[in-house]
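Recall the central idea of this unit: under ordinary conditions, the amino acid sequence of a chain determines the structure it adopts. In this exercise we apply that idea directly, starting from the sequence alone.
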Amino acid sequence: MLDSLQNPDAGFASERSTELIRIKDLGTVRQGYIEPPFTQLRFNGQPAIGISITNSAGANVVTVGEAIESRLEQLMPILPLGIEVRKVHWMSDIVDEAVSGFLVSFAQAVAIVLVVLTLFMGWRMSMIIGTALIMTILGTFVVMAITGVDLQRMSLGALVIALGMMVDNALVVADGMVVRLQQGMDRKKAAIESATKPAIPLLGATVIGLMAFYPIYASVDSAGEYCRTLFTVVAMALVVSWVVSVTLTPLQCIDMVPDPKDGGKDNDPYASGMFKKFRGLLETAIRFRWLTIGSTVALLLVSLFAFQFVSQLFFPDSSMKKFMIDFYATEGTRIQQVASDLEAAEDKLSADDRVQDVTAFIGAGPPRFYLPVDPESPNQSYAQLIVNVHDFRDIDGLIDEYYPWLTGQYPDTLVSMRKYGVGPATTWRFAVRISGPDQRSGSADRPSRILPSSELSGKKAWIF
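Accordingly, the structure predicted from this sequence is:
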C-alpha cells in the first residue's frame, strides 16, 4: 500500500507486465513482401534480387571475378528450380579487356617506334632505343608496385601517353654518341660525354614535361581525385627513362653503335644539305629576331582566340556496352505506380535486337558499381533502367530513337538518358552565370565575385 501511495503507477505497471497481448488481436499476420515496398528490382521484366560484390583494397579484380564465377558454377545445381543468375555489370571482364587493350596498344607502339628507327637510323639504333623503352616500362612497373599504384584505367592511360616521351632521353644520348664517333672521338670517351653533358638539360626537360600534368594532380575537384595517378605514373615513367638513358644506354652504345664508314676523321655530321638549310633558316630568324618574336606572339594571340571554338572535353564517353535511363515521376507518386508505368519501356527496349538485357531499379539507384556515377538516393518516385547492348556503337542511335518516344510516353515524368563517362560525370549538364553590380564598389557586371544567397535578391541571372 505504501508503494502504491508513493508511486501510483506502480500497480498499473505490475498489471501491464503480466498481461499477454497477441499480435493477431491487433492485425493479420501472414508471410509476404513489405507493403508498400521500399525498392524493387526487375531483370528483363522478371522480379530479381541484386547482389553487389566488390574486391577488397589491393586485390586483383580479375582474379576475384574468376573466383566468383567458379563458385557460381558450383552453386547453380543446388539452387531452386527456376532461379537463374545473370550479370548486370561484371567489372572483372571490363578490367581484363582494358588491360589486354593496353598490352596490344603498347606492343603496337613499341613496334612502330622500332620500325621507324630501323628505317631511318638502322637496326642497331632501334635495338638501343627499343631496349631503353622496354626497360623504362618495366622499371615503371617496379616503382608503381613499390609505391602502391595499381594498374587501372588512369595508370594504364598514363603509360600510353608517356610512351612517346620515354624514348626522347635515350634518343638524345644515342644520337650524341653517333655524332661524336663521326667527329673521330674515342668510343669510350664519346659514350661518357654523350651521357654526362646532356644529363642535366635532359633532367630539366623531363621535369618540365611531367609538370604539364601537375595541375591534374593538384586539382581539388573530383577530376583531380579520379586522374591523380595520371601525373604520378607519367612522372615515374619519365624519371625512370632519364635514369636508363644516362646509365644503360651509354653502355649499349659502346658495344652496338657502328663505327663511321669513312673512319670519322674530322668529319662534320652537320655538313649535309638538310642541316645547311636548317642552319640558314635559323640564322635568318635570329637576324630578324623582332619579326620572329612578333610573329610568335601574334600566333599565340590567334591561338588563344581560336581556343574558344575548340570543344572542351576532358573525359570522353566510356566504351562500355550499357547506358542509363533515369525516370523522375511527380513527387509523391507511389512506387507501385512507378513500377507499373515502367513496364512499357522495359518491354519496348527488350524487344529491340540491339539490346541484350534491361535491368530496372525502382525506388532507388543501383549499388555503386562504377566509380564516376553516384547512385540516386532512395526515392519512391524514382526509377532507373540499365540497358546492356551488344555493341556500344549502337548507344547513340538508341538514345536518339528512344528519347522522343519516352518523353511522349511519360509526359508527367522527367526522363534522362545518359551514357557512362570515363571520368566524373553529372546527370544534368547546364551552367549558371550570376552577374550584377558590386554593392561595395558600385561597379557593374563583375561575374567573378561569388555572391551569397542573401545577396541574390534583385540580381540578374542567366541560365545556359
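Residues 1-6, 442-464 have pLDDT under 50 and may be disordered.
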